[in-house]
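Can't attach files on this board, so I'm pasting raw text. These are the components:
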Amino acid sequence: MDIIVCIKQVPDTTEVKINPETNTLIREGVPSIINPFDENAIEEALRLREKHGGKVTVITMGPPQAKEALKQAIAMGADDVALVSDKAFAGSDTWATSYTLAQTIKKIGRFDIIFCGKQAIDGDTAQVGPGIAEWLNIPQITFAVKVELQGDKIKVERLLEEANEVVEVPLPCMLTVVKQINEPRVSSLKGMMKAKKTEIKTFSAADVDADPLKTGHNGSPTRVVKIFTPPPKGGGEMLCGSTEEMVSSLISRLKERKTI
Amino acid sequence: MLDYGFKEEHTMIRELVRKIAVEKVMPVRAELDEKEQFPWEILKVLAEADLCGLYIPEEYGGFGQSVLAFCIATEELSRVCGGVGVTFAASALGSTPILIFGTEEQKRKYMPEIAAGKKLAAFGLTEANAGSDASGLETTAVKDGDYYILNGTKQWITNGGEAEIYSVIAMTDKKKGARGATAFIIEKGTPGFDFGKKEKKMGIRCSATRELVFQNCKVHKDQILGKEGMGFIVAMKTLDLTRPGIGAQAVGIAQGALDEAIKYAKERVQFGKPIISIQAVQHMLANMATQIEASRALVYSVAKAIDNGAKDYTKEASMAKLIASDTAMFVTTEAVQIMGGYGYMREYPVEKMMRDAKITQIYEGTNQIQRNQIGLSLIKESARK
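---
Top answer:
Structure tokens for the assembled complex are below.
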């Protein structure tokens, strides 16, 4: 069982601030972490390996400092990691990113399952996982909450809004996972020592035979027109008293504001 | 905290334990305390993170016999929960006799499972009539061929009932007094070995404290630690080695209380400003922080000295335990004071820290006994001059 997990290093906050003048993310002073859903993806891969044997390879596309995220993956128990990093990748949107990761996976070669988090907490697009599956032309199952390997097939329960859906696909396939699928393990001391000693291998655009027209800014059809912080919502007001009092108070307020 | 010139692995251990403490212990500490529930889930996480064998040599499955590493881990756990901290530390107390006095065979049999966190250990010395005065032990072990028959009751044994492996001191020859005690390794499940009721405690309430009851419990002579008659030496050497760990536990509890007090003082507005801007409060915090750093410095120094091969450290180990535990009591009391009514409420964590701190002045030798020990060492040292 060869499993590849694609992860992203993201700023450690759910409240990313935006510089109103440049419309870019303020990253200074914000520590970087593995995207939380990607930690679930690593955990699920490790659990499958523990049950069925095999190898877990974790990859990420990003700047050189993304090596830290890969080291954490080793500390958790990943067998192998790779960083895909090149100046040519700057400005990649989800199209170019999924292309680049798919090229990297082709370069790695063998795989039975690709795991991704359902989305990254910074971009929130949830497009890269499915994009990879499309570039590789393999089945994809998103929002996996339960995974069960059955020979050369995999049975997956998907967490949907109204109900859970159980689907089955042949391997190889790509799965994105939700946080309810598991609780990611804490790194082990021996894993951390191993991570410290590991030299992270890096692939450039040329290493993964990436087409320059499909990577980075050139390969990204998405154009960001504007990024802005929405004005903060006004605070709510709680009404007290008996039901009658609250209703009459509410109606008088609505009338005051000429809502009704 | 001062840069103590740690090795990278020590920093790594601190970060890892801190992460576990914050992510896994903090959310459940109040509930564990309230329900007096043993923290098995947390111990499992610690085991998976390779943290149960920090004080155990690599050949027995540990991470390399470092008192300092063990102290750092105990401190960071206790910073969040003193009960979890002592549960972790008591297994080291229970297995240290095997490490120091065990035969190669005994070590190979017991240490790897303890290092892997698969089994907990506990130490059985105290009895109803033998606390500070350990010579009053009444549990007996009578020789019967290749076996010893144990009778008696050990009291207030941390990890009692939960642990699988017990280091127990019993009298093999009462007439010989201190030289008549012997240490045994006794496994849970040995016929005649049972547990008394689980005690209800003031603090460290998630830790388990029970009686060990021996009724004609038959133990093979191969289970003796060291030699017959060495029981007190086993106990004293063990406690010398583990006292810095209690010091570390106390430093952790104190640091946790200071963390809370500072956080609160910054948020709490009275007289139109956060109370941390009031000098009276700043001075309280300054005293707390100073005492903590002094205690920590001594705990680490003693731990490092032991790791570097120091032979005689009884006095300094006692000093580290003494200053750190008195500091824990002082700092947690002050933290409650700074937080006022909030501090006194169980909704906030400092009242628990104050309850947890008290035991550090009592167990593994009361602070009065520590002072006796230090005084005795001073007399011995002066006699040598």
